What we know:
The chain is mainly beta. The protein folds into 4 domains: 2-49 and 349-433, Immunoglobulin-like (Sandwich), CATH 2.60.40.1120; 68-140 and 165-205 and 243-340, Porin; 437-518, Immunoglobulin-like; 520-633, CATH 3.30.1330.60. It contains 8 helices and 37 strands.
Amino acid sequence: MKKIKLVTAILLALLVVAPVNAAQKKKNNRSHKTSYSQKNKKKSSSTKSTTTSMTDEEIRHYNARRFDIHNVYVWGGAGYSGLVNKGTSWTNGFNYVGTGSSKFVGGGGGILGVGYEYNYKRLILSVGPEFRIFSSLDKIILNNPVQIDHINAYDQTKLYTLSDMQENQVVGQLTLPILAGMQLDKWYWKAGVKIGYSVMGRYTQKGNVSAALRDPVAYEDWSNSMPNHYRTGSTDINLKGTNSYGFDMALSAEIGLRLDQLLGDDWMAKNEARQYPMRMRIALFADYGLINMSIAKSDAPMVPMVDVNNLQTASWQASEWGSSKLNSLIVGVKFTWLLQLNKEKEEMSPNGYLSVFTFDARTRQSLPNTAVQISATKRGEKATKKTTNANAIFAKRYPQGDYQISAQRNGYMPVKNQRFHHIQGNDTALIAMQPIPVYKCVILDAKSNQGLASTLTFTDVATKKVVKTGQSAGATGLYSVTLPLGATYQVRVDAADHFAFTTSVSDIYGVDTFRIEPIIKKRVIVLQNLFFATNETTILPESEMGLQDLYDLLNENPEIRIRITGHTDNVGSDEANLKLSEGRAYSVRQVMIDRGIDANRIEAEGKGESEPIATNDTEEGRQQNRRVEFVIL
């Protein structure tokens, strides 16, 4: 029922004010930063309030341009790259024939750049110079043997074999990326073109070429028609030099994650408060050339491949298979760092309703007739002082901005200067009123059940400092006290001719009844708040309150002599239980002696499981049977 009343009151608060303009609200949500800004403006004390007497037209014009964000950004990336060789082949030239081709393998590459990025709401536009470097490997394959006709009358055939032939090319380009995309809450994407020109190119060739020379008729023995014979040779190829390439235009795309969105609200709030906020991104990217790059031009001369008995065989120009069918390629991971050069302007809006709803923080019930004060001291305006209506609501139109709300009501702790950011449109400030923390207790004689005059001492458990002391009424035993919230207190009750009683209190709004045992000879008293390690005689530290009560009794009544008796449940053997009960009783006795009580005033004994006060068939009963008692002799 209480929850229904609270929900009803809040709904009434919302019905009192005019509805938010839906179109304007939709417009606000389109900003890539609005969701964060609206989420944290209430938390940030540095948020500036925008107030204005501008016309609605002027406000619309201002708001239309408030999302213009300018950034300087730096990026770098690395990944897989290459010059894709689409169907590269070659045919050897003068005096020989034969074809070959290359197999594209690729290599590693990277990008590095700095540029400008413009953000409008969710739109991203970026441009800036970038340096790209490619490392591309090609395997060289000979498809057919090369046939050579010798210059003289003797036909000769030369057969070639390539072994581990490969060419590695490194190309550097200066490009101008022109990209556009969209910024989502955590993700973003961009796509466009990169226009560039190669500024460097180097190559290396490695491998081995072997050749066999066959002549139908031997040179020196042709007249005798001697049979054919072979001459063979091989050579290692290890060449390096420079290549030059030309114009390149590549398609580019990237999709990634905003790293700053993952650093938490505290970091983001501090970042937004900086003069120049920064952003970080990580993304996957891919660039692929749209056009064929210019034919590679090498500085290498024609070189002989094999010398067979001083007879040079076929030769080619190094890197000549870098044909006109080369396309740039690079895919990898990219990191971007942005520095925002200007602040997003805070949105202006016509005044909306600010409603204040007051309710009990403990019961959640509405609190009508609560005095409320609303002030915007930064603007020097006079504070509004009103009382909430029968539905516990006060509502009034206010400009967008930061406000301080105070509330006061009898029986409740005052709320002072609670900060609230009033956004565009209508919103409600919920003010929870904390009841004044009054702790109540009743002190009774445990035998007569009558009110008992006593002294109560309240000590903060954390600080060990006494917070309050007072006297309970003798007729009723009632005592009440106001205590600070958020602490746990140790309560000690002292009454004449009664045992001292100590306990702890954490519910400041509670009402407790304490029954204090009178000091009567031969009466068995169970020591409360006494704890031992399982199956041991070691007294645990949390037993201090119970030990202190027993010590105070003996110290304040020097004529008293007591007997301490230990008891156990029926788990275990009789002998073990008897020994355990004796050990626990003597442990308590020893603590009293160590604190200065005469040993002749204290006896100790153990009775094991022989005198249960509850059933041993349940855990609750066994716990009651595990006890230490004392009796005044």
